[in-house]
Amino acid sequence: MVGAGNAALAAAASAREQGARRVVVLEKATRELRGGNTHYSGGLLRFAYDSSEDLRSLVPDADKQVPGFYAGVEPYPREAFRKDLLRVTEGRTDPELAEILIGRSQDTVRWMARQGIVMEPAVSLSAVRVGDILKWSPGAVIRARHEGVGLSAMWFDIVEALGVEVRYDTSAVRLTQDARGRVTGVVVRDGEGFHEVPGKAVVLGCGGFEANPEWRARYLGRPWDHAKVRGTRYNTGDGLRMAMEIGALPHGQWTGCHSTPIDASAPPHGDRKLTDKTNRLSYMYGVLVNVRGRRFFDEGEDFQFYTYAKLGGIILNEPSGVAHQIFDSKVTGLLEGRFDPTIRDGLRTKGLELPKSNWAQRLDTPPFMAYPVTGGITFSFGGLRVNERAQVITTSWTPVPGLYACGEMVGGLFHTNYPGGTGLVSGAVFGRLAGAHAAGA
Ligand SMILES: Cc1cc2nc3c(=O)[nH]c(=O)nc-3n(C[C@H](O)[C@H](O)[C@H](O)COP(=O)(O)OP(=O)(O)OC[C@H]3O[C@@H](n4cnc5c(N)ncnc54)[C@H](O)[C@@H]3O)c2cc1C
Q1: Contact yes or no for 284/304 (Cβ under 8 A)
Q2: Using one digit for the tens of pLDDT, what is the confidence trace for 248-265?
Q3: Residue 8's pLDDT band (boundaries 50, 70, 90)?
Q4: 361 shares a domain with 385
Q5: Cα 6 to averaged position of ligand 1 atoms, centre (Å)
């Protein structure tokens, strides 16, 4: 396995489960900085379920933590997940990959739980208090316990208990192949220099190119070379480069990425302790203006989980790459009574060239607050084409024998935008598939 985030560690656990005798995880970061973007994530898991009762075995104590939890959660059948994915990607999601993701989402989250990933209701991410009740954003109501920090730590414990060897400070730099084109291992660089690590199969789970300014400029264009990185500094496109060097077929939107509004003074890379707390995601309750005082985005276009992942890039493209979110005191403590953020309420502006489509109200109650924000990149959307076994496909449209990819490296699922909580489940779905098939390779 190359990488030690959610996707590669899911692949490692799956490979062991399917009988792989020896699994080695190669991780570029030191042990202290391990965990990739997974560590920085909110740990939110979006998956399909027909009834809130389907969640009971995953979060058996939810009713104790959040009284009325099961009664408050709406069903999120596969069709709803499909519609959300299609809507936010403007119909461009790869239909075959989307079916694999959606169809296997619940089963894979259950599998994660069986491996030992403990889950909890995602109160601070998904729940909004309306009057006396908590309302949940359908499909994205559960997260790993202690968010990404917990998820990453649990995965390391799980794979170590399964006898997987994790080598830190070890960068994969090149794939090796035999004369028939079968992948036979990787060349790595570690404290002792360059050497070869042979393997019957290689699973690439080493992220996108979000932390590589040159690739950001190359594929995403201006002003992405200046973007702050929300997560790890190590996802620099190495796996994509290595695979394409041996003929892998790129797939998906190489000009696109996930990016969110973050505090304008956030550090250039993710902070291990703050993780995703630099996010500034309450824009729909106020107005968003650029440094010239002009609005540039319909703050009420949709619920936060369906707009936040494209808004970072929109902000970054405004003058100076900075904007201000302005609120009045009616929305502190979230909202005043007549205002329900859990439905698209149709309270829209009239006569503005750029409307605010929902949750529009006057800013008329001081004191007013403004937060300076910029766009932070989360992960790149362009990746490799994989098939239903997570095998990497070549430019000749045949699988590369012995090579698999998962996580952010899988191209095609996300375009322009993304439904919150999908990245980790996608990583686990394709990681699990990659590990299982690699074990049988
Ligand atoms: C702040 C933040 C919040 C997020 N919140 C959520 C959320 O709540 N829910 C959700 O679904 N998604 C969320 N995401 C997205 C999600 O975290 C990622 O999509 C997911 O973690 C990616 O998993 P991965 O295993 O593909 O990559 P990563 O977790 O990034 O792991 C890749 C690993 O590969 C290693 N690596 C890179 N190059 C090499 C090399 N050459 N050799 C060896 N190792 C290498 C890296 O060091 C890293 O450890 C969030 C992301 C961020 C940054």
Answers
A1: yes
A2: 999 999 999 999 999 999
A3: very high
A4: no
A5: 7
Give the residue whose CA is nearest to atom 8 of ligand 1: 42
In the reported structure, the alpha carbon of residue 282 is separated from the centroid of ligand 1 by a whole-number distance in angstroms of 24
pTM above threshold 0.85: yes
Ranges assigned E (strand) in 146-256:
165-167, 171-177, 183-190, 193-198, 202-204, 228-229, 250-251
Q: Is the CB of 38 under 6 A from ligand 1?
A: yes
Whether residue 323 sits in one domain with residue 393:
no
Residue 220 lies in a domain: no
Asked if residue 336 has pLDDT above 60, the reply is no
Distance 283 CA to ligand 1 centre (A): 25
| 379-411 pLDDT tens trace | 999 999 999 999 999 999 999 999 999 999 999
Helix, strand or coil, per DSSP, at residue 91: coil
Q: How many domains does the chain have?
A: 2
What is the side-by-side strand order in the sheet with 183-190? 171-177, 183-190, 193-198
Give yes or no for residue 337 having a pLDDT over 50. no
The whole-angstrom separation of Cα 373 and Cα 265 is 8
Q: How many CB atoms lie within 10 A of CB 157?
A: 12
pLDDT for residue 69 is more than 50: yes
E-assigned strands of 18-77?
A: 24-26, 44-45
Range of the domain at 434: 6-208+378-439
**So what's the pLDDT on residue 339?**
58
Question: According to the model, what pLDDT value does residue 334 have?
Answer: 60
pLDDT tens-place string over residues 359-375: 888 888 888 888 899 99
Q: Are 149 and 273 in contact (CB under 8 A)?
A: no
Report the atom number in ligand 1 closest to the C-alpha of 39: 29
Question: d(Cα 15, Cα 9) in Å, to the nearest integer?
Answer: 10
Which protein residue's CA is at the shortest distance from atom 19 of ligand 1?
A: 423
**Beta carbon of 426 within 6 Å of any ligand 1 atom:** no
Atom 53, ligand 1: residue with shortest CA distance: 231
- Residue 70 near residue 53 (C-beta atoms within 8 A): yes
Is residue 181 domain-resident? yes
